[in-house]
Amino acid sequence: MPVKAKLKKSLQTLKKELQEKQERLLNEWDQTKRDLKARQKLFGRELKAKQDEFLLEWDDVQERSKERFDQWLDRFDIDELQGMLDRYKEDSEPLEPIGDNDVLRLLPEPKQLSMTLQEALEKRRTSRDFSGESIAEDKLAALLWAANGINRKNFKRTTPSAFNWQDVSLYVVQANGIWKYLPKRHALLFIEGKDQREHFGEIKTWMKLASQHIVLVSDARKTETFSTKLIEKTFKVDFSEGEMNERARAINVGAKVQAVYLAAAAMGLGCTCRLLVDDSKARKLMKLAQEEKIMAICSVGEHPASIFDHVI
């Protein structure tokens, strides 16, 4: 066979093989597409089935959660729930509520405390030596802010409070009357207009020389919150009364007392904490509710320049 004819035959054979391979590849690709489409439909049906199953399960979860929440709410009486809601609403307000006839005295910016914590701790001590002179208002503002001031958003305070009760309020007894510190307003609310310091420091002579008595009062009503009630209903541990309640409230007061001590040390003021007071007389003067309890008193004032620097 001539070379030319032989080459032509080989090319025809190769062309035929290429055509056959191309057809096989096309057939395989068509089959692959059909398989993919079939699998896609199957996956879609399975996904839809799973989705429907999940929705049914989620509906069941929601229903069970609602039932359990309703069961939990059923453990409370309506007055108990309303009281907690009212207190939550009051605590969430941007400013403390006041009456139309209430008298406020805005405090200046607290005096800046430049002393380090190390130095303040070293200088912290109980001092019963006072000159009898009133301390500057920016120093009083610093004492009150250190103990119960707002230092970040959501009305969080400078001192810790168990369960965030914020049950402790500060009252200032000074020459121009009795005032309640309002942290959100950084102001004093007028309570009583006469100088009543003698009724808060009559036990010892040196107490009469303190320019201010900071009275720490805990309100038992603020300890009845959703969190404490949830613990009570779930774990049978009652934080709203009894020993656990007293312990938590004492811790809250102690944190504020230490803050007053440290701020006083940082500003060179004298400070002493005590528990004894004519409770019935003091409560009447401060117009306290039955649920409010005097927990401690911090007497503060300037140090005397000498042992003769006293006015009795």
Summary, kept brief:
The chain contains seven helices and nine strands, in the order H-H-E-H-H-E-E-E-E-E-E-H-H-E-H-E. By secondary structure, it is α+β, with helices and mostly antiparallel strands.
Give a structural overview:
InterPro entries: Bacteriocin_Proc_Enz (IPR052544), Nitroreductase (IPR029479), Nitroreductase-like (IPR000415). Residues 4-39 form a coiled coil. Keywords: Coiled coil. It comes from Candidatus Aphodousia faecigallinarum. There is one protein chain. The chain is an alpha+beta fold and 312 residues long. It folds into 2 domains: 1-74; 78-302, 3-Layer(aba) Sandwich (NADH Oxidase). Helices cover 48% and strands 17% of the residues. It has a 7-stranded antiparallel β-sheet with strand order 1-6-5-4-7-9-8, sandwiched between helices. A hairpin with a 3-residue loop joins β2 and β3. The longest helix has 72 residues, at 3-74.
